[in-house]
Write a structure and sequence with these properties.
This protein is an alpha/beta fold. It is built from 11 helices and 11 strands. It is globular and about 65 Å long.
């Protein structure tokens, strides 16, 4: 979108519709906008293919509202992660069409339509307790333009549930495997599918789980090939990486 915006500014200057100073001022705002407490990186979309994402945790509702409003009026699609209800209500005051995904804790504002990929990202979650992280991954991937299929509550404690969905899972271009407790799900998947797997350890589990550390170490020590690991509870990071892989797959078709 921002490549098009740059071209539009240059064409308007070439056609004499705007002056040199007006063109310069417009181009100055494209790299980033300084709000004092935050600098919005508008060039992120040119470099990465996706706009900058607002990490809401640790920011006040007023800060999130101001960032979101400035991004919205500049034409960006907005994704806010780890957002509370208070963050959403503040954003809703200035952008009526903001949407809140409560389980995923995500705020979304669309300025452009979503064109879904043909390639599928599969989000595979071990248990119902893992769903907040799984939904963060699934919603993020969908908002980034991916076709997503969910396979939930298919952990290794009842392996038949996973095997029952295996044909569908194998149709996915890339998989996000979300698990807490001992974190064995990605390794099991890694031995059954050919798709790359992004493993997400969750903080779900009893004391020896150490708030996700045991699941993280299990996934890092996986004996299955093709398993990469993101940080504990980082559904967003997994979805971002999966989106890049899926986009490469689309471009190679």
């Amino acid at each position: 979108m921002y490549n098009e915006k740059i071209l539009q500014i240059l064409m308007e200057f070439k056609q004499g519709k705007i002056s040199t100073d007006e063109a310069l001022e417009a181009l100055k705002k494209l790299p980033y906008e300084d709000l004092g407490f935050a600098k919005i990186d508008y060039h992120r979309e040119i470099r990465k293919g996706f706009p900058e994402v607002i990490f809401c945790q640790g920011k006040t509702p007023e800060q999130v509202k101001e960032i979101a409003f400035n991004m919205f009026k500049n034409g960006s699609d907005i994704l806010g992660t780890r957002a509370s209800q208070q963050h959403f209500e503040a954003v809703k005051e200035v952008v009526e069409k903001a949407v809140y995904y409560e389980e995923a804790r995500i705020i979304s504002i669309r300025n452009t339509p979503i064109n879904k990929t043909k390639g599928i990202i599969g989000v595979v979650a071990a248990g119902t307790s893992d769903l907040p992280v799984a939904e963060e991954a699934a919603i993020t991937a969908e908002l980034m333009g991916n076709t997503v299929k969910r396979f939930y509550d298919v952990g290794v404690a009842g392996l038949h549930r996973l095997l029952d969905k295996l044909d569908e899972i194998r149709q996915c271009r890339v998989l996000i495997a979300v698990a807490g407790m001992e974190g064995a799900l990605p390794t099991v998947l890694g031995g059954l599918v050919s798709s790359p797997i992004i493993a997400v350890p969750t903080s779900v589990g009893y004391g020896a789980n150490f708030h996700g550390l045991s699941a993280l170490l299990t996934m890092l020590n996986s004996c299955a090939s093709g398993v990469s690991v993101v940080n504990i509870d980082n559904g967003f990071g997994a979805a971002y990486s999966a989106s890049l892989i899926n986009r490469i797959g689309e471009e190679s078709k």
